[in-house]
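Researcher: Structure for this, please.
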Amino acid sequence: MITVKSKSELEKMRTAGIIAGDALHFGGQSIKVGMSTYELDKIIHDYIVKHGAIPSFLGYGGFPASACISINNKVIHGIPSKKEIIKDGDIVSIDVGAFIGGYHGDTAYTFAVGNVSEDAKQLLKVTNESLYKGIEKAVPGNRIGDISHAVEEYCVSYGYGVVKNYVGHGVGSKLHESPEVPNFGKAGHGPRLLAGMTIAIEPMINAVGEDVKVLPDGWTVLTKSGSLSAHFEHTIAITPDGPVILTKPTIV
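Model: Predicted structure, token format:
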């Protein structure tokens, strides 16, 4: 069932969204060549807890960390590890959730570390831009397919592969709610968007091909081609005045 939030519920979601967005931004600022993804996860965990929230992902479905950290050809759901060291030229996707006041915020960003390739820079730029192409369509009266089509059309125009196995979703008192928000689809199709709906739009885009595979850990998703992958996400509220990004960071 798709839930429509009241004004007070949206305010609570904004609080959760700010903590998630700031934790993500703080984590990105903290990335250093030579640090482990375990260290980065701890920084993010401590930030969320310090600000009175609970990491949404910790223990979710058995996930063992507070952030999903996915490097280079890892698409999503990378498990932080003391053995995984961030190197110059890596692209590091961080996916963060924060739960406070009964509501979740969910957001992701892929950071460039040091001297990344021009191909990597373009993949990050296009994937991030596609997120905002989708957000532009998140207005009352449109349909989920309008968001999906905008993301897909933009990324495919650059020859990239749009991951189809994993999609965006509603967000609220549960981390994952209806409706699903694919990054592919037909304009004018799917559930109609109503003011008060809150959804996570999250393009997951591969440099080569759409196919993915899951490691034996049951979590980590890789590009089947071995190519780079980027992931960007915001939780947004659909309002009569247009889309509002709930996970926009407030720290600089």
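Researcher: Any notable elements?
Model: DSSP finds four helices and 15 strands in the chain. The chain has one domain: 7-245.
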